[in-house]
């Protein structure tokens, strides 16, 4: 390296350290989900039999999460939806995440909630090959959110629980508000949205997502 190259390298490093060059932020991957079910071990055994274990079909993008071979029928006062996929592993409480249009078919009004926020949610009947169960709570429409590590949160300048707006590129792109940041060290960076909202803006796993404060 010549003396001018060395000088240029030093100047560039000084500019970076001084904050004059904005750090490039990585693209946020997109995860699009359909209706699905999370089960407790007790409810799993009621539906499939004592000692039953879920059968993993494929890993999902979030660490330790996977899609299962098993499906259930969910039923409400007006109708039922068959072959709703179960996701593993089992949880402490069962919950069912549906789409807005499913509410009309089932005859139940489900609130928009983050996964795990089950207080005050309506119930739903689950029908399996060995039994059925009525959940007193746990039916919801998933609120759009972004999973990330704490380091990702620092890089993006956001905090766990913060609500942000995102910009979606593309011919039918636009912005979505009320996107919740879920930052912890057990997650992988990914924007989660259901199929209805994704279809409205032609959102795909290859779409470019930008966080707007």
TrEMBL record:
<comment type="function">
    <text>Involved in 1,2-propanediol (1,2-PD) degradation by catalyzing the conversion of propanoyl-CoA to propanoyl-phosphate.</text>
</comment>
<keyword id="KW-0012">Acyltransferase</keyword>
<dbReference type="InterPro" id="IPR008300">
    <property type="entry name" value="PTAC"/>
</dbReference>
<dbReference type="GO" id="GO:0046872">
    <property type="term" value="F:metal ion binding"/>
</dbReference>
<dbReference type="GO" id="GO:0016747">
    <property type="term" value="F:acyltransferase activity, transferring groups other than amino-acyl groups"/>
</dbReference>
<comment type="similarity">
    <text>Belongs to the PduL family.</text>
</comment>
<keyword id="KW-0862">Zinc</keyword>
<keyword id="KW-0479">Metal-binding</keyword>
<protein>
    <recommendedName>
        <fullName>Phosphate propanoyltransferase</fullName>
        <ecNumber>2.3.1.222</ecNumber>
    </recommendedName>
</protein>
<keyword id="KW-0808">Transferase</keyword>
<dbReference type="Pfam" id="PF06130">
    <property type="entry name" value="PTAC"/>
</dbReference>
<comment type="pathway">
    <text>Polyol metabolism; 1,2-propanediol degradation.</text>
</comment>
């Amino acid at each position: 390296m010549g003396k001018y190259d060395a000088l240029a390298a030093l100047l560039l490093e000084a500019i970076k350290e001084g904050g004059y060059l904005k750090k490039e932020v990585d693209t946020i991957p997109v995860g699009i989900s359909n209706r699905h079910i999370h089960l407790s071990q007790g409810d799993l055994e009621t539906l499939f039999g004592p000692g039953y274990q879920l059968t993993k079909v494929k890993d999902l993008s979030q660490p330790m999460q996977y899609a299962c071979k098993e499906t259930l029928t969910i039923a409400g006062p007006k109708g039922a939806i068959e072959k709703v996929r179960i996701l593993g592993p089992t949880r402490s409480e069962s919950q069912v995440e549906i789409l807005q249009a499913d509410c009309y078919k089932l005859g139940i009004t489900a609130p928009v909630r983050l996964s795990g926020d089950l207080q005050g949610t309506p119930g739903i009947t689950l029908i399996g090959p060995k039994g059925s169960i009525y959940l007193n709570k746990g039916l919801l429409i998933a609120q759009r959110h972004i999973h990330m590590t704490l380091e990702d949160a620092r890089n993006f300048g956001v905090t766990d629980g913060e609500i942000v707006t995102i910009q979606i590129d593309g011919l039918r792109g636009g912005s979505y508000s009320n996107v919740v940041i879920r930052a912890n060290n057990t997650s992988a960076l990914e924007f989660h949205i259901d199929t209805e909202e994704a279809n409205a803006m032609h959102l795909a796993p290859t779409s470019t997502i930008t966080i707007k404060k």
